[in-house]
Amino acid sequence: MKFLLPPVLLACLMIFASFRSTKQISLSTVPSSPLSTYSAAWNDTKYLRCNTAANAKYMTATEKEVIYILNLARMNPVLFASTVVKKYPDTYFNGYMKNSAYYKSLLDTMSRLKTMNLLYPDSLCFAGAQCHALNSGAEGYVGHNRSTEECRKKWYYNGECCNYGHNNPLDIIMSLLIDEDVPSLGHRNICLGSYKKIGVSIQFHRVYRYTAVLDFHY
To answer: Is the pTM of this model over 0.70?
Structure first.
């Protein structure tokens, strides 16, 4: 025996089913955080706004992710300390870095920091960073000096970090934040400074294979 539902009830059930389907689709399409392997807490939708470079067409996906991760660290430094910084040595260095004074100081510093402003991509910062990354990489030198007139003309930063040997976004950020063997902690201080704009360029380096240049501006 078949039972026929009243038209009104049938319509309500169809609307409910459609709503559930739409909700499931919308939730499944939310991209996972680049830090989700360290904690599911990073998948909270409030952190999506940290991906400020998403629409910066002049940068590669890897360069954009460097900004994304740095913004995540700046938005919630305490969570970054308790998840990423705490687990990072075991993930990439078999635990040996846990005894580093620089690593320990980063863990302590991030655990006490408050939320910082987000960094936004800037085409002028990027142009300067890209020129320096390409030129220094091709010539195989390190440092901040611009050896060509073109790069000197594109100089546009108040703070600059140059990293060597990494092309993974998280490795780049962690290397700069740990700042091993840099007593002044200059790279860490720049990454956690009160800048507003940033440009990132990752290029081939003749000696270290990769160089990443991060240019910051107020």
So the answer is: yes
